[in-house]
Amino acid sequence: MKIRHERPMSDLSFEVRAPLGLELATGETVTIANWSLDGFQFPGDSDVLPKEATLSIPFQGVDIRFPVKLERKGKDRFLTFEGLTGRQRETLAVFYRSLLSGRMASTEEVITSLDTPVDLVPMEETEEEKEVATAGKSPRSLRALFSVVLYLVLAAVIFWTLGSGIYGRISTVDIHNARVEAPLVNHAAAQGGFVSEIAVSVGDTVSAGDILVRIITPEGEAAIADVRARITSIEQRLGDAILREARLAARLAQERLDLVAAVLFAAPSTEQRAREALEAFDGRWSADHMDLFEAHAATLREIDSTEDELRRLRRERGRIGEAREALHVMATEDGIVRNIDVLLGQFVARSTLVATVEGTQARQARGWLDQSMAASVHLGMEVDVTINAGGGRERIAGQISDLQAGIDPELSPEFGMIVTVAFPDYSVEDAREQLPHLMPVQLEAQRAWAARFSDRIDSITGFFGG
User: Fold this and answer.
1) What element of type H or E holds 335?
2) Helices 271-282 and 218-264 sit at what angle, rounded to 10 degrees?
3) Which helix (H) or strand (E) holds 234?
4) N or C terminus of the chain: which is more exposed, having fewer CB within 10 Å?
């Protein structure tokens, strides 16, 4: 275990009393009276503390403003400055140290600089100063040697600067108008209609076939409502017919039971007549029951025709439902919703952009190259990619993944080579987080002989370094 004692930094602990303006995202401006380089106590009693704001330093009638990020420390209302750039932190430190030392002061809600008047100093040298200037002066030869060395150093710096520029121009191929592009898929309305539901939100993960936006038309809704009402009516009529048929069937069954009982309990003189009556009933030609037979048969025919009509209406309902579903905008592939371009209840015409989904493919950079340089690049060629990360330049590795000859108006109106560069060191998630869509980048493809030369220099340097 190592125990290390460090003295506290006074710059982060002492507070100064001087006005600072804090413009919140809501447009409200809050005045901070006491603050330090570490942070400040947010005034008021609101439970919601800001995370981003614009800091304003009133200095002699001029506001010095820059954006800041705030983070809450502990359970109180103390907010600290997070992610300040070097220039921003140094600007704040200048006022802080000047207030502590007394070179600046707060007057009438403004920070002012305290100028101390001094006596005028004569510009010409006195006799004593002239003697001191010439005393102990180095010999002329040493001064000449110093001048020669200085000129040689300046010449080396100039030669190195110009030589590096010339070498970079002949050893690399610049790919122009480059930018990062996400695999965005635009989803448009197939037919005109009204937005009835927005089923997703920006940032949601969707799969192919998921409904993004539901679109309806008054004609389609009227048609489906009409067929549903007709189906309900037919179903009610079918139910009534089935109920009547059941009652008639029960009466027929009861009549036959009565005839069977008459045969079983008939006297010898009436038994033959009772059997003939039963045979006539079973044959459906009994005159006494003809009305009952016809009513039952008519009910069965009504049930059959009603069921046929119901099946037809249900097929029509399915057809109308499929037509309604075809109006909805569905995701064509897996991805993340990046934009919703319609509002609930809005009317959209055919081919109107409704939503944008970013696919699961990795983000790439695309640039333009003059056709005269077509022979200078090839698939798999290593590319140095320069991006602006956090206010500074950062170089990452790239590789040419596709080459196409043609015209892309978004890159250049002239015919040339459309160069696509992949980022092999970045995963899909890292590229989404660190390489925003349409972010400008600088692409430099290194020529083959320059790459071999660089590898040889690296091997020689590694040999002597080892």
Assistant:
1) strand 335-340
2) 160
3) helix 218-264
4) N
Hey, how many other C-beta atoms are within 10 angstroms of the C-beta on 365?
Answer: 25
**Contact in structure between 93 and 11 (CB atoms under 8 Å):** yes
Give dist(CA 466, CA 448) in Å, integer.
27
Task: Give buried/exposed letters for 87-126 (b at 16+ CB in 10 A, else e).
Answer: ebeebbeebbebbeeeebeeeeebbeeeeeeeeeeeeeee
Tokens of 297: 């048969």
Burial class (CB in 10 A: 0-12, 13-18, 19+), 385: buried
Q: How far is CA 328 from the centre of its chain?
A: 22
User: Residues with Cβ < 8 Å from 374, sequence gap 6 or more?
Assistant: 405, 417
Between CA 375 and CA 238 the distance in angstroms is 79
Inter-residue long-range contacts of 306-310, CB under 8 Å, 24+ positions, other chains counted: 306/234, 306/237, 306/238, 306/241, 307/238, 309/234, 310/231, 310/234, 310/235, 310/238
Task: With cut-offs at 50, 70 and 90, classify the pLDDT of residue 454.
Answer: low
pTM listed for this prediction: 0.50
pLDDT at 408 (0 to 100): 83
Orientation angle between helical segments 140-171 and 448-465, nearest 10 degrees = 130
Provide mean pLDDT across the span 225-235: 92
Residue 193 above 90 pLDDT? yes
Query: How far is residue 310 CA from its own chain's centroid?
Result: 48
E strands, 381-440, in order: 382-389, 392-408, 412-422
Q: What are the angstrom distances between the C-alpha of 314 and each of 100, 200, 229, 322, 324?
A: 85, 31, 11, 12, 15
What's the rounded Cα separation, in Å, for the pair 324 and 313?
A: 16
Length of the chain: 466
